[in-house]
Amino acid sequence: MNVDLKNLVELQQLDDTIRSLEAEIQSLPRKIAAIESQLTEHIASVEADKKKIADNQKSRRKREGDITVLREKISKHKDQMLEVRTNEQYRALQHEIDFHEAAIQKIEDEILTEMIESESLERQLRSSEKNLREERARADIEIRDARERKQQDEEKLKEARSQRQQVCSLLSEQIYSSYERISAARRGRAVAAVVNGACEACHVRLRPQAYNDVQANEQILNCESCGCILVYVAPPVAQ
Length: 239
Ligand SMILES: [Zn+2]
Known about the structure:
The protein is mostly helical. The chain has helices spanning 3-81, 87-170, 173-185, 208-216; strands spanning 191-195, 198-199, 221-222, 229-232. It has four helices and four strands, in the order H-H-H-E-E-H-E-E. Strand 3 (221-222) and strand 4 form a beta hairpin. The longest helix is centred in the middle third of the chain and has 84 residues, at 87-170.
């Protein structure tokens, strides 16, 4: 193979590697942030569940306090009943007592509803706390892996960039600037393989003469359609 062509193929491979490493390095902090943000969201949801349980308990305690106050009133009325002189006064007190007892009954029903609600909230909390513990463990591993991956990528990138410099130093200014021009125009693709007689970049078939020339891989030829530098890749030999 032509030495320049061989170096151009290598340059393209290095540029592909560099591009994909750069993309991954950029994406990893976003990935970490997404994991952390989801975790924060789930922590907030567990905290909200805890608050619901605390509110429920607070409400029940308040209602129990209300019942105590009503029972004290009833007891006071019962004392007063011992001292009344008329039936009318007696009935009025009995009416008050009945009224308070009905109120107590109503509050007790509300407390019962809240107790049932509390049990379901506790069950929900236990389950979401368990999920959170699992998620936290998973997130820790994923974040650690992403950080390690980023570090490895940065090392590989450094290595690839230094290899790229070496390869570039072997190319003439003219060939290198031609590569860069095509690469810039075609979003990083300057070298294209010829597969089954067609340019892999634009899929246009080569004319027979051009195809013959390309198969030798002895000169730098550009695709007549897209301008890519062509390199012939022999089809795999059937076993
Ligand atoms: Zn082409």
